Amino acid sequence: MVFIHLAEGFEEVEALTAADVLRRAGIDARTVSVTGEKMVKGTHGVAVEADMLFEDCDYEKCEMIVLPGGLPGASNLEAHEGLTAQIKDFAARGKKLAAICAAPMVFGSCGILEGREATIYPGMEDRLKGARATGGTVTVDGSIITGKGPALAMEFALALVESLKGRETRDQVAEGLLYGEASHD
């Protein structure tokens, strides 16, 4: 099971692309509201009904925590003490963590990037405390996956699939989505 966390001001394309692509791969991906309400409004005003509330999650059954970016969404995730405690616990146990756009800053503030490589939205590299900022589109360093921004949501989501189910499943999902066949006419 994968928990994709939604806070007020989350980046819609990042959260929903991750949920969609993971589900296409047969992964039980659930959106989780950290607001206390199931309806959560994204940074561009798109309201999404989360599958569940943070308070109802069983993190022992969770394989991966995913954080979409967006502002103030990433800041709101960073301020959620229950979520940051789960992130620190996952990091200590080597469980999978993923964040895209502004959200890798949450990992930085949790102190889990020391000596690792990570990427983040351009101009926010100083928020990757302890990490070497790669500037890459998606960076995988052990159990931590980071993505650069909204236009890379598909590449990020496919990296999550690969991390959980392997390259073959990732490639099958990508092929079904026609990923890589975009027209440049």
Automatic annotation (TrEMBL):
Name of a matching Pfam family: DJ-1_PfpI
Signal sequence, start to end: none
Gene Ontology CC annotation, any one: cytoplasm
SUPFAM superfamilies on file: Class I glutamine amidotransferase-like (SSF52317)
Domain DJ-1/PfpI, residue spans: 2-162
Recorded superkingdom: Bacteria
Gene3D superfamilies: 3.40.50.880
InterPro entries in the record: Class_I_gatase-like (IPR029062), DJ-1 (IPR006287), DJ-1/PfpI (IPR002818), Prot/Nucl_acid_deglycase (IPR050325)
Matches recorded under NCBIfam families: not_thiJ (TIGR01383)
Protein name, per record: DJ-1/PfpI family protein
Species annotation: Candidatus Allocopromorpha excrementigallinarum
